[in-house]
Amino acid sequence: MSRFNPYGDSSGGSSLAIAGADFAILAGDTRHSTGFSIDSRDQSQIADLGDGLFLTSNGFSADAKQLVDDLRTQIKWYHHNNNDHKLSISAAARTTMMLLYGKRFFPYYVNPIMIGMADDGTGAVYSFDPLGSYDREPSRAAGHASELLMPFLDNQVTFANQLDPQTGEPRKRLDLDLQTAVDLVKDAFTGAAERQVQVGDTLEIVILTKDGVDRQYYDLRRD
Amino acid sequence: MAGLSFDNYRRNKSLEASGVLPPKTTSTGTTIVGCKFNGGVILSADTRATAGMVVADKNCLKLHRLAPNIWCAGAGTASDNDKVTELESSQLEIHSQWTGRAPRVVTALTHLKQHLFKYQGHVGAYLIIAGVDVTGSHLFSLHAHGSTDVGPYLALGSGSMAALSVLESKWKEDLTKEEAMELCSEAIMAGVFNDLASGSNVDLCVIEKGKPSRLHRGYKQPNQRLQKQRNYNFDIGTTSYFEAGSEVFYISKQSDLETSAMEVDQVS
């Protein structure tokens, strides 16, 4: 006797975020797939929540979409109740946690990543698990290629387990400049597209600075 | 003991029942096609091998030579394809030396289907067999359970629906060699771009009457790796270690050095 399974396997590829001293980057590929078939080569997975907040949620796409709708509703009510006051990213992150944990026993099958500029002007990356456990981090990858992307970020963004040859001390994490961070994102995704069949088509990068939002697109392999 | 070993069959069954999953085999999760033209026959394949959703090999060769005039393309379990084609090419060589004739395509087909039927589908080889012999040019497909098909154009593998969509819409009778090469590579490309288990390059083999077979390795290469933005060399001294040192080993007898690499084969 088989039971109805509410979760499907339709999913976006992978996403990745890096926080800098005065910027935050959120990137994702635009391939959407179910099983071994491509549903779309041009499906953005980066949602603009307003208030300078951007979100990706990798996992089951229908749940990802519903989470975005939930968050937009929350933000709209926050504006109604607080004279259009801008929702800070720390508050938005806590709201996301409340939404996710609110479905503790019928969870959204998603791994969300949120970026924005923090109150002190620094770039912020918040990542969540499907039940709402969350943290602010220097970098994070999620989705099908997260196992490929995350070790690369550990190595190139946080310099994990590396020594400074001059001093012999653990290598200090420098604040990346924007161009380096964007180059890392491109190399991470071209690399992931080589080995993960669900990653490909186009790379979409959202760059957040004090001056505003910049969206960039780069071709990935389409096979 | 000749044949395959089933020693661990019952143990693996009970492990599976207790929730220990077997390891993933490398699948060629493939697009392969074959197409006849008015002077011979063409085989074509993509070059991606996968283990689940991870690309195991970006440029593997799925076209196998069974005899100088008979080739086959394989989909399904990579190891089964490699072994079954290797075995068959040896058998055909022996057979052609014994008979003093060039082997026929039906000989390869019949022998392979008998082998695969014997193993009831557990040898996961799905083949398209093509070649020319004294009776003309031939194109067959062969499934792992032993069934065979004949046709002027055939496709197999996870990308076969994509490939067939091209073949069904563009194939016509009396194709020239160049037309057939174009059609086959286009059919493979449909699989490469639309089936996630197929990818990378297109290999193509032309088998013509009265000419040596020609393998075009990397006939189309539509998915070249882009230049990296940065280089990722590490300075010497980046990796930490507890201590550096060296040890000296003395070898008492020359024979200690001559441990045969094939030692494992000598165990009966």
From TrEMBL, chain A:
A Pfam family recorded for this sequence: Proteasome
Top-rank taxon, per record: Eukaryota
UniProt keyword terms in alphabetical order: Cytoplasm, Nucleus, Proteasome
Localization per record: Nucleus
Keyword Nucleus: yes
SUPFAM superfamilies: N-terminal nucleophile aminohydrolases (Ntn hydrolases)
GO cellular component: cytoplasm; nucleus; proteasome core complex
Key word Cytoplasm present: yes
InterPro entries assigned: Ntn_hydrolases_N (IPR029055), Proteasome_sua/b (IPR001353), Proteasome_suB-type (IPR023333)
GO terms, biological process: proteasomal ubiquitin-independent protein catabolic process; proteasome-mediated ubiquitin-dependent protein catabolic process
Official protein name in the record: Proteasome core particle subunit beta 6
Organism: Starmerella bacillaris
Lineage: Eukaryota, Fungi, Dikarya, Ascomycota, Saccharomycotina
UniProtKB/TrEMBL annotation, chain B:
GO biological process, one term: proteasome-mediated ubiquitin-dependent protein catabolic process
The protein's enzyme class: hydrolase
InterPro entries found in the cross-reference section: Ntn_hydrolases_N (IPR029055), Pept_T1A_subB (IPR000243), Proteasome_sua/b (IPR001353), Proteasome_suB-type (IPR023333)
Protein EC: 3.4.25.1
Gene3D superfamilies: Glutamine Phosphoribosylpyrophosphate, subunit 1, domain 1
Active site: T30
CC terms in the record's Gene Ontology section: cytoplasm; nucleus; proteasome core complex, beta-subunit complex
Region forming the signal peptide: none
One Pfam family this sequence matches: Proteasome
Listed CDD domains: proteasome_beta_type_7 (cd03763)
Chief localization: nucleus
Compartments, as annotated in UniProt: Nucleus
PANTHER family xrefs: METALLOPROTEASE TLDD, PROTEASOME SUBUNIT BETA TYPE-7
The protein's name in its UniProt record: proteasome endopeptidase complex
Organismal lineage: Eukaryota, Fungi, Dikarya, Ascomycota, Saccharomycotina
